[in-house]
Design a protein that fits this description.
alpha/beta, single chain, Rossmann fold, 22% strand, eight-stranded mixed beta sheet
Length: 210
């Protein structure tokens, strides 16, 4: 897709009904006009996963959260082209937005696909998935709600597993200290396809709220 065919970020912020740049819980039932289950993808990249999930599951609502202007512009343009009505895009950093945009026990599922591993030790503090963030995720999930994570970076995968296993509200669906061998029922992201095609191992995690 050529960038010259994309609407500007300023145009999106001013007038696109599928885009939200907010610092408060907006009343998601009013935003979507229904009471369908609410799902969140944190860091949607180019939006392949988000859009395909929304098309596959028209009776569920999907929120994509990211702060990269280029990706947001691409996804908003594609949402309009495909006329997908059950997606909203939220601008911002999930660490800051998650606590204020959702009520407790409001989310059905959360997807975090290939979060930036920040491999250099001096940058580890920038990683998204930390105990405080996980605690917020657990609070926003409904009982029985799920968190799905994928990463190709083994050291980060092990750290993520340890952090999630320490959260008492969540249980590893694969068993204690175990990664999911493969995922089923959800589309592959752009990066996931690339890693699989190159023969790299992907670490999947699924946790459920009791």
């Amino acid at each position: 897709m050529s960038l010259k065919n994309l609407i500007s970020f300023d145009e999106i912020a001013e007038s696109n009904p599928n885009f939200l740049d907010i610092d408060y819980e907006p009343g998601w039932e009013a935003v979507f006009g229904n009471t369908n289950p609410l799902n969140l993808e944190v860091g949607f990249g180019v939006g392949n996963f988000l859009i395909e999930m929304a098309i596959r599951e028209p009776d569920e609502n999907f929120i994509g959260m990211d702060f990269y202007h280029k990706g947001i512009r691409k996804v908003i343009t594609r949402i309009g082209r495909y006329q997908v009505s059950n997606i909203r895009i939220v601008y911002g950093d999930a660490k800051e937005k998650l606590p204020i945009l959702f009520n407790e026990a409001e989310l059905s599922r959360v997807y975090i696909n290939f979060p930036d591993p920040w491999p250099k030790k001096k940058h580890h503090k920038r990683r998204l998935i930390k105990p405080a963030f996980i605690k917020n995720l657990a609070a926003k999930l409904k009982p029985g709600g799920e968190i799905h994570i994928a990463t190709d970076y083994e050291p980060y995968a092990i750290e993520i597993l340890e952090f999630f296993e320490a959260e008492p509200l969540l249980t590893n669906k694969s068993g204690y200290r175990t990664f999911l061998a493969q995922k089923e029922g959800t589309p592959q992201t752009k990066y996931e396809k690339k890693f699989i095609n190159s023969g790299e191992k992907i670490f999947y995690l699924e946790f459920v709220k009791q």
